[in-house]
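Progress note, project year one: complex with S-adenosylmethionine.
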Amino acid sequence: MSLPDGVERHAFGGTTSIATRGHPEYGERTDGEWRRWDPHRSKLGAMLEIGMETGLTADQKALYLGAAAGTTASHVADFGGPTYAVEFAPRPTRDLLDVAERRPNLFPLLKDARKPETYAHVVEPVDVLVQDVATRGQGRVATLNRQFLREDGYLLAAIKARSEDVTADPEDVFDDVVSDIGDAYDVVATESLAPYHDDHLGVVARPRR
Ligand SMILES: C[S@@+](CC[C@H](N)C(=O)[O-])C[C@H]1O[C@@H](n2cnc3c(N)ncnc32)[C@H](O)[C@@H]1O
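Model obtained:
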């Protein structure tokens, strides 16, 4: 597995895990300046932990969709460059503001990821688009936000089957969502995020030229 500079495997007591350096935010284990990037709490962490090639780099600009209280966005900002974090629910955004207070490169946006026109004036072209919105229409959210991604960038999406249809077979849901993503991207890898997250699919895709 190739990890970006600033993300390392680190021992926390009996557990070896990926980790970044920064202020702890969600009760994760720490060792000196290192904080565990808990793959059980973070789908992007799970994608890294299971060895998906993400294209993440230390100098990247990132747009993060579905930031919630900033659990994963905090790690992305720990090792990366400017990180725009979109979240539409006010309650988690309040916590996200505290996380951003400690990270000058993390920019919270209280916005709806289905309405990219409402933040297009703020967000510069990015190298990586991370998506974890857990809402219906996850493929469409990815295609709507393709406009922010540089030609050589990466989409890293965590697809939650139950957010599309609680009764459908997750594999059928994944096929549909990946097909929707394929409208604007070339999908290069998909992996189940089990055992860290049941019924979630990790997707790596490149914008279609
Ligand atoms: C599974 S949680 C994200 C967890 C987060 N990515 C992390 O790892 O820390 C999904 C989040 O997406 C947000 N969300 C869902 N639909 C959204 C939308 N259309 N625009 C912005 N945020 C959305 C939800 O409010 C929720 O906070």
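The first helix runs from residue 43 to 49.
The mean pLDDT is 97.
No further modelling is planned for this target in the current period.
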